[in-house]
From TrEMBL:
Residues covered by the P-type ATPase A domain: 210-345
GO terms under cellular component: endosome; plasma membrane; trans-Golgi network
GO molecular function annotation: ATP binding; ATP hydrolysis activity; ATPase-coupled intramembrane lipid transporter activity; magnesium ion binding
Binding site for ATP: 455-457, 578, 620, 644, 673, 753-755, 835, 841, 864-865
GO biological process, one term: retrograde vesicle-mediated transport, Golgi to endoplasmic reticulum
Protein name: Phospholipid-transporting ATPase
Listed EC numbers: 7.6.2.1
Active site location: 455
PANTHER family linked: PHOSPHOLIPID-TRANSPORTING ATPASE IIB-RELATED (PTHR24092:SF50), PROBABLE PHOSPHOLIPID-TRANSPORTING ATPASE (PTHR24092)
Membrane topology: Multi-pass membrane protein
Gene3D superfamilies, sorted: Calcium-transporting ATPase, cytoplasmic domain N, Calcium-transporting ATPase, cytoplasmic transduction domain A, HAD superfamily/HAD-like
Family of this protein: Belongs to the cation transport ATPase (P-type) (TC 3.A.3) family. Type IV subfamily.
Record keywords: ATP-binding, Golgi apparatus, Lipid transport, Magnesium, Membrane, Metal-binding, Nucleotide-binding, Translocase, Transmembrane, Transmembrane helix, Transport
Length: 1134
């Protein structure tokens, strides 16, 4: 059935099918799964085929591609391709990567290394001393706009083309470049200081002469480094020794892979057994390590000690490694450095930061190209009207220069200053304290986002587990009723001590090997006691005492008792869930006080110590989804098998009941992680029988794992269900309302996490990333093309359901069905990808950008999110508990997830709207003056003479109109409160209507109308005082501009008013002082301005008349538009 469901709307692919079917039967008989797969109607896109290795299409298609490369191809874009490939080749030749090789590292002897390895320095900078200037210039002149100005400015050195003064062209260009360089230099310096701070962290290095302090960046391969508790591991190391007695330690890896549970690492046996630290130098040993690679979950190597007889060889695996950027959680560790700097796993998993360019800048760039075409056409028309007389090509070039104001140089200056202003406003916003703008070039991106890719751990959740619910089948206890449990526990232990003779029967009637009589229901008190005891015993948690690290399990009880009541007891385990459970049993009175490899001790509320011997432990694995433990109580000798695990795994193991499934569902809907706890009492004979079979299975050569599992399963039958526990991973403040806000704003949210599938699904529900009434489709694990095909077909039938997929399955889907998968996933209201590696996160971001063309935003808080943050169009880092790596690499850094709502809805909206208005207004300013120049030239027999002199042109773009135009940066169309209250307003922004060819054309028409009116008006009304045309038209022009700013503004701010009057004041003052500029053409026209003329009434009324004619119709049109088709936001504000 699944085979017949097409996975794609059928595109026109007849041509392809023609040679594809005939080809398959005649030319290439390929016998593999893909050949019968292709008979299924899964319509693959062209690109899809290129991604498949086993495809027989490649041959004929390659030939087709070869044919196409002709002149047409070159003109239509081939030149770009050739240029980029040449540049890439040059760049690669210049920085040819050194081959990464396997290595032999001698302990404590960096000087014995055969090769030179990279420095152990963190480097986030984009440039160095030499590449800074060329790099910044390239980034600037890559834009058409700036390149055009460079050419125009250079043309002024040719005498025949010289128009006006050099400074009129070079001053604005120099200013733009200076501003940009200063900004980049400041950004770069900030990055440098941050890196320096990380690189100058001090570590102790072990040498023959004792400990030496050294900087993180000076560490070399082969050094022996000591890392204290809670210190960052500076480079990839092999774990040699620890202060812990058991030869192991815990490390926190959330910076590396986003997983919250601590990882247990084991020291190399040979070095851990040495009596003292200094003996590391007395032995002659080396580590052989494989070549550096990306995979953080695997490692192969060997440890060899040569001076013993015979030489000792130990194999090294991932559990002997300490990767850089992880943090030591227990004890002090000593390791030998094997990879440094660029070769560490964490750096290999981060991508190079790219220069991000906002969408608005790209749109403006395309508009300037359109303007350039208009400019050339206009110049050609002017020369044509002259009749191509004389050296016309020189005239053509002069016209191009005259009209070069169509493309305003001040556009970049204004926009860049605007961006700086938005950044300043974001940082000064009291509602989102601590926000930092690290990349000042893309604040407008915040207003255009469609996809938000978020990390889970530490971003949506606080990574703190809290015990919330205990359910016993008939009765359920929540946070508010925990004191009842406490009183039951106290009571049950008081009974035990009160009647010592019958202790075993009164506390737990069910401890006898034979099952209790079926009809008698045990009291709630004893059931609670059993449940709490099971939770207190069935785990892998070790209590640690800070003050007395040396005390072991063999202390006397009295002495132990006083130590165990110590305040500074902390628990260590590989999973925070387990710690939460043990902390909870402590809070209700049953405390885990000590644990070693063979026994565990609990303290009752009365202070009595109970000892249990650990007989067997069956650890938790992701396949079995459960863990078990067999303990023998010292006092009674009873043997009990306790087990806890996920409901899926446990429901078939426990005795029949009618409530488990329903309650698990209820707890999951509340976003709690559920664990089912069960027990089984064993007689001595049953246990001995089990132990024999278990040991036998452990020694078998073939299928060992299967046999061991089978023996354990023989115990896992008809277990007594004790209770169901619910633990909550606490969400960050206001995550639910924030996600709701973003969803209403039309932003699609994808959660990419390194965590387990169950946890990810759970958080997706509790954070309301997936709303309550939505189904969740869990994508089955797939490993090859046909499975992926069937599973995608199954997913295609689902409607409006969230998708949960694991990293491995994702890899397979992207390999064969990239387009199809992304197209399906984009239709989902929410997507959760779990078990994602850092590189996979970045890959998903890039895929969304390529295949949807929409803007993406990535938000995370750990080192494992850096690649994703750098790949996204807009990266946001959260300063978390887990260090600052993500917030340093991001474009924007915030302190809490909830701030993202205001950042996008308010600041994103304002930045985009303001920049769009500012950009178009600056273009309008240039178009008006060019229209006037065109009218002027056509009246004067198409002479290529400038209308306004150099200083007037510079003044026009700066002093006279800069303040009011720039004050558009303070404009806002909706109040922040409204924008947050109605996030739906954000949807309009993503359509990009504030700046499009339509709005641009409207501005062009306005400019042409106004420029024409101003110039013709000046010529009509002033035929008598013809020489005064410049003064009149320029005055009217300035007034028009100031009125147009007033027309564009939506919300007035006092600074805007100041700006308007300031500009007007400057202009009036300059009329008095710069009178020689107000003649036509050069001074040779002899038209000096007399102040007397300006002060006459005729001058004033005529200027006013022209200005009114040019502006009044626009005001009327604006009023009518607001009346008959108001924008969506005005309906809300009225």
């Amino acid at each position: 059935m699944a085979d017949n469901i097409p996975l794609h709307p059928v595109r026109s692919i007849q041509k392809k099918n023609a040679y594809y079917h005939e080809g398959r039967h005649n030319r290439y008989q390929v016998e593999d799964e893909s050949s019968h797969l292709d008979e299924m109607p899964l319509m693959m896109s062209e690109e899809g085929f290129e991604n498949d290795e086993s495809d027989y299409h490649t041959l004929p298609r390659a030939r087709v591609i070869q044919k196409k490369r002709g002149l047409g191809w070159f003109v239509s874009g081939g030149w770009k391709l050739l240029c980029t490939s040449c540049c890439d080749w040059l760049a690669n030749t210049c920085r040819r990567k050194k081959e990464l090789k396997a290595r032999t590292v001698w302990l404590g002897c960096p000087e014995k290394c055969e090769e030179k390895y990279p420095r152990n320095a963190i480097k986030n900078q984009k440039y160095n001393i030499f590449t800074f200037v060329p790099g910044v210039l390239y980034q600037q002149f890559k834009f058409f706009l700036n390149l055009y100005f460079l050419v125009v400015s250079c043309s002024q050195f040719v005498p025949a083309l010289k128009i006006g003064y050099l400074y009129t062209y070079w001053a604005p260009l120099g200013f733009v470049l200076a501003v940009t360089m200063v900004r980049e230099a400041v950004d770069e310096y900030r990055r440098y200081t941050r890196d320096k701070e990380m690189n100058s962290q001090m570590y102790s290095k072990l040498t023959v002469r004792g400990k030496v302090q050294m900087k993180s960046s000076d560490i070399q391969v082969g050094d022996l480094i000591i890392v204290e508790k809670n210190q960052r591991i500076p480079a990839d190391m092999i774990f040699l020794r620890t202060s812990e007695k058991n030869g192991s330690c815990f490390i926190r890896t959330d910076q590396l892979d986003g997983e919250t549970d601590w990882k247990l690492k084991i020291a190399v046996g040979c070095t851990q057994r040495l009596p003292a630290l200094g003996d590391l130098f007395s032995i002659n040993s080396y580590v052989y390590a494989q070549r550096p690679q990306q995979d953080i979950h695997s490692f192969e190597g060997t440890f060899t000690r040569e001076d013993s007889d015979p030489p000792v060889h130990e194999s090294l695996s991932i559990e002997n490694t300490l990767w850089a950027s992880t943090i030591v959680a227990s004890g002090t560790v000593i390791g030998v450095v094997i990879y440094t700097g660029k070769e560490t796993r964490s750096v290999l998993n981060t991508s190079n930061p790219k220069n991000k360019v906002g969408l608005l800048d790209l749109e403006l760039n395309s508009l300037t190209k359109a303007l350039f075409v208009a400019l050339v056409v206009l110049s050609v028309v002017m020369v044509a009207l002259q009749g191509f007389a004389g050296p016309w090509y020189r005239y053509l070039f002069r016209f191009i220069l005259l009209f070069s104001y169509i493309i305003p140089i001040s556009l970049r200056v204004n926009l860049d200053m605007g961006k700086a202003a938005y950044g300043w406003m974001i940082m000064k916003d009291e509602n989102i304290p601590g926000t930092v703008v690290r990349t000042s070039t893309i604040p407008e991106e915040l207003g255009r986002l469609v996809y938000l890719l978020t990390d889970k751990t530490g971003t949506l959740t606080q990574n703190e587990m809290v015990f919330k619910r205990l359910h016993l089948g008939t009765v359920s206890y929540g946070t508010d009723t925990m004191d009842e449990i406490q009183s039951h526990i106290v009571q049950s232990y008081v009974q035990v001590t009160g009647q010592p003779a019958g202790s075993s029967s009164s506390s737990t009637p069910s401890r006898k090997p034979q099952p209790p009589p079926p009809k008698v229901r045990r009291s709630v008190s004893s059931r609670i006691h059993e449940a709490v005891k099971a939770i207190a015993l069935c785990h892998n948690v070790t209590p640690v005492y800070e003050s007395r690290a040396g005390v072991t399990g063999e202390t006397e009880y009295a002495e132990a008792d006083q130590d165990f009541s110590d305040e500074n007891r902390t628990y260590q385990a590989s999973s925070p869930d387990e710690v939460a459970l043990v902390q909870w049993t402590e809070s209700v009175g049953l405390t885990l006080v000590n644990r070693d490899l063979t026994s565990m001790q609990l303290k009752t509320p009365g202070g009595q110590i109970l000892t249990f011997y650990i007989l067997q432990i069956f650890p938790f694995t992701s396949e079995s989804k459960r863990m078990g433990i067999i303990v023998r109580e010292e006092a009674t000798g009873d043997i009990t098998f306790y087990m806890k695990g996920a409901d899926v795994a446990m429901s078939s193991i426990v005795q029949y009941n009618d409530w488990l499934e329903e309650e698990c569902g209820n707890m999951a809907r509340e976003g709690l992680r559920t664990l089912v706890v069960a027990k089984k009492a064993l007689s001595e004979e049953q246990y001995q029988d089990f132990e024999n079979r278990y040991n036998q299975a452990k020694l078998s050569i073939h299928d060992r794992a299967l046999k061991v599992a089978a023996v354990v399963e023989s115990l896992e039958r008809e277990m007594e269900l004790l209770c169901l526990t619910g633990v909550e991973d606490q969400l960050q403040a206001d995550v639910r309302p924030t996600l709701e806000l973003l969803r209403n704003a039309g932003i699609k949210i994808w959660m990419l996490t390194g965590d387990k599938l169950e946890t990810a699904t759970c958080i997706a529900k509790s954070s309301h990333l997936v709303s309550r009434n939505q189904d969740i489709h869990i994508f089955r694990p797939v490993s090859n093309r046909s499975e992926a095909h069937l599973e995608l077909n199954a997913f295609r039938r689902k409607h409006d359901c969230a998708l949960v997929i694991s990293g491995d399955s994702l890899e397979v889907c992207l390999k064969y069905y990239e387009h199809e998968f992304v197209e399906l996933a984009c239709q989902c209201p929410a997507v959760v990808c779990c078990r994602c590696s850092p590189t996979q996160k970045a890959q998903i971001v890039k895929l969304l950008q390529q295949l949807t063309g929409k803007r993406t935003c990535a938000i995370g808080d750990g080192g494992n999110d850096v690649s994703m943050i750098q790949a996204a169009d807009c990266g946001i880092g959260i300063e978390g508990k887990e260090g600052k790596q993500a917030s340093l690499a991001a474009d924007f850094s915030i302190t809490q997830f909830k701030h993202i709502g205001r950042l996008l809805m308010v600041h994103g909206r304002n930045s985009y709207k303001r920049s769009a208005a500012l950009g178009q207004f600056v273009m309008h300013r240039g178009l008006i003056i060019s229209t006037m120049q065109a009218v002027f030239s056509s009246v004067f027999y198409f002479a290529s003479v400038p209308l306004y002199q150099g200083f007037l042109m510079v003044g026009y773009a700066t002093i006279y109109t800069m303040f009011p135009v720039f004050s558009l940066v303070l404009d806002q169309d909706v109040k922040p409160e409204t924008a947050l209250l109605y996030p739906e307003l954000y949807k309009d922004l993503t359509k990009g209507r504030s700046l499009s060819f339509k709005t641009f054309l409207i501005w062009v028409l306005i400019s042409i109308y106004q420029g024409g009116i101003l110039m013709y008006g000046a010529l009509l009304l002033f035929e008598s005082e013809f020489v005064h045309v410049v003064a009149i038209s320029f005055t009217a022009l300035i007034l028009t501009e100031l009125l147009m700013v007033a027309l564009t503004i939506r919300t007035w701010h006092w600074l805007m008013v100041v700006g308007e009057f300031l500009s007007l004041g400057c202009y009036v003052a300059s009329l008095a002082f710069l009178n020689e500029y107000f003649g036509i053409g050069r001074v040779s026209f002899g038209a000096f301005l007399d102040v007397a003329f300006i002060t006459t009434l005729t001058f004033l009324w005529k200027v006013s008349a022209i200005t009114v004619v040019s502006c009044l119709p626009l005001y009327i049109l604006k009023y009518l538009k607001r009346k008959f088709s108001p924008p969506s936001y005005s309906k809300l504000t009225s």
